[in-house]
Design brief:
By secondary structure, the protein is of the alpha/beta class. The protein has a single domain, classed as Spore Coat Polysaccharide Biosynthesis Protein SpsA, Chain A, CATH 3.90.550. The protein is 24% helix and 27% strand. It contains eight helices and 15 strands. The strands form four sheets. Strands 1, 4, 7, 8, 10, 11, 12, 13 and 14 form a nine-stranded mixed sheet that branches. It starts with a strand and ends in a 16-residue tail after the last helix.
């Protein structure tokens, strides 16, 4: 299976960092946050990635093109120009980087890479970490009669809220970033880790389509959007304060999102 990472946004709320690089390359513990996200997938056997680039996509491409040399020990023969690798990176990932447009919206970015997606795929944003079990998420999705499963979490109310049918796993309403007093506190919200059937991309009209609006709203109204409830750790990196909180967890040796890394994907 493939995992699609949305990595093209401007990251304006983290402008202290994103004025010179895309948000997925903002570092936690000396590593880009996109690396942390990919480690979580790879720990479950998902190591084929499609990165949807936009703002400063050249830096993302440069990071992965040079990844082997940055992560290896090597000797350079300055006379011949030959490079002898002594220690290769442990990652054996396959990473496809696609320029999906500078101003393309999230839905349009995924639709742009549709030709690369011929089977069920994972989808997430390149700016948040969680200890989601990809194995459990995938198994849950396969039990649902739905085109999309999203991971529902319960952080403080500042995100879009979901209405989940009592005693069921189907989302009956999806509303992104509700107004004050609507969907806060105990509301289930979109945690950003999806499993998607390729046919769900038919709900995306074009490059200006926001995945979290019309496509998910229509899928929910038709009973095609399922909710996988995740009670574990989830943390976005929207602001500098978020980054500092994640840095503190990492430097303190208690980064909860790494707990999922050693778990293999179950068949």
């Amino acid at each position: 299976m493939k995992a699609v990472l949305l990595a093209g946004g401007f990251g304006t709320r983290l402008s202290e960092e994103t004025s010179v690089r895309p948000k997925p390359l903002v570092e936690i513990g000396g590593r880009p946050i996109i690396w942390h996200i990919m480690q979580t997938y790879a720990a479950h056997g998902i190591d084929d990635f499609v990165v949807c680039c936009g703002y400063r996509g050249d830096l993302l491409k440069e990071y992965f093109v040079n990844y082997c040399r940055w992560e290896s020990d090597f000797t350079v023969d300055l006379g011949s120009g030959e490079v002898e690798i002594h220690r290769s990176p442990r990652e054996s990932w396959r990473v496809t980087l696609v320029d999906t447009g500078l101003h393309t919206m999230t839905g349009g970015r995924v639709r742009h890479v549709r030709d690369l997606l011929d089977d069920t795929f994972f989808l997430t944003y390149g700016d948040g970490v969680a200890d989601v079990s990809m194995s459990d998420l995938l198994a849950f999705h396969r039990r649902q009669d739905a085109l999309v499963t999203l991971t529902a979490v319960q952080p403080p109310g500042r995100f879009g809220a979901l209405t989940i049918a009592p005693d069921e796993d189907k989302i009956t309403r999806f509303h992104e970033k509700p107004s004050s007093g609507d969907g806060g506190g105990e509301a289930w919200i979109n945690g950003g880790y999806f499993v998607v059937e390729p046919s769900a991309l038919d709900y995306v009209d074009g490059p200006d389509t926001v995945w979290e609006r019309e496509p998910l709203e229509r899928l929910a109204s038709e009973g095609n959007l399922a909710a996988y409830r995740h009670a574990g750790f989830w943390h976005p990196m929207d602001t500098l304060r978020d980054k500092h909180q994640l840095e503190e967890l990492w430097s303190g040796g208690s980064a909860p999102w790494t707990a999922a890394w050693p778990v293999p994907l179950q068949a």
